[in-house]
Amino acid sequence: MEAETQFFRDTWAEINLDHLTDNIKNIKRHIASDEMKMFAVVKANAYGHGDLQVAEAALEAGVHGLAVAFLDEAVSLRKGGIEAPILVLGASRAQDVNLASDYNVSLTAFDLDWLKEASKHLKPDARLKLHIKCDTGMGRIGIRSADELKKIESYIHSISQFEMEGIFTHYATADELDDTYLERQLGKFNEMLAVLDERPEYVHSSNSAAVLRKPDTHFNAVRVGIAMYGLTPSQEMKEVLPVPLKEVFSLYSRLIHTKEIKAGDKISYGATYEASENEWIGTIPIGYADGWIRKLQGQEVIVDGKRSPIVGRICMDQCMISLPLPLKTGEKVTLIGRDGNEAVTIDEIAGKLETINYEIPCIISARVPRIYIRDGKPVKVTNKLLSSG
Ligand SMILES: *Cc1c(COP(=O)(O)O)cnc(C)c1O
Description:
Blueprint: E1 11-16, H1 17-31, E2 37-41, H2 43-47, H3 51-60, E3 65-68, H4 71-79, E4 86-88, H5 97-102, E5 107-109, H6 112-121, E6 128-134, H7 146-158, E7 162-169, H8 180-194, E8 202-206, H9 208-213, E9 221-224, E10 249-254, E11 257-261, E12 266-267, E13 273-274, E14 279-284, E15 300-303, E16 306-311, E17 319-323, E18 332-339, E19 342-344, H10 346-352, H11 359-363, E20 370-374, E21 377-382
Parallel strand pairs: 1-20, 2-3, 2-9, 3-4, 5-6, 6-7, 7-8, 8-9
Antiparallel strand pairs: 1-10, 10-18, 11-14, 12-13, 14-17, 15-16, 15-18, 16-17, 18-19, 20-21
Helix pairs in contact: 1-3
Bound molecules: pyridoxal-5'-phosphate.
């Protein structure tokens, strides 16, 4: 199979597009409105999953458009052949507006001075689609008052090349079960919407957490990231999930060397691990340069259906595990995912690293090839090291 020839190292991530499709369909069913437009958030290489492959699968599963953080990410998707609407959620540079126009990418308008600057750069035949960003309490980018919104709206209407396509805001606490702050933000957004002369085509405010928990934040479009990847926006939301979510990302390696060591023998840099009795050790070709960072020392992986701890310091390209029994090289090792009755979830890794699940697939670096699974079978491999351009 072609897929097997596209990388030459026994470490890979599997991206299960069947799970992605199921998650999207379940979320769409939960929203239960045919008019609702769903934007799949594929910023940061689709949270580390692979932007083009996720975008294609998400569009096939019925999402309306895509959202990214930066203009480069949007252009990359267009170059990959994506024709669906794309919105850049973050700030773009005013001097790059013609690029957005050329590639038919919608940008975020978050400040009147930026808009004035943008209009100076825009070529006469260019057309720029804009979504106004309201900062209702996130404190990141956006306009903060109804007054400012009125000014921005009339400025956009005064420039014929501008099209006011959307308006949106973003919640700081949608993943917390206490709604006080979210309600305040939603109230502010509604107040701002009320001063518009005309509502644009897209009005949106929900991220995954708000999509799953708060129907009154849906308006007519939603932006779904983490839930599409099968991850719960927060631990407290696990209790109230209205739809099942299936993890899309898993991570594997193979034993490339095994040996029996004697009591007193030591393992890895600093010789910090010492065998207390005879013990089998396996080496796997993944290390901190792959995003499998040193703090994961002690984390368990699954080999031969059993949990086995990483022992000694994690090196740049390799680490060692204590094996439950003598095993041969070539044995599959599951770092994230299921093997038999055992599973290591992304949430478990996030817990070990004292961070949120969002961060985990994002930090698995481009050196790790991604294998895409469809209908239960591998269909494509991406390997940034071997891809041209
Ligand atoms: C990243 C992002 C999202 C997606 O958030 P999830 O919690 O992953 O669903 C939505 N909106 C904005 C503005 C974002 O930056």
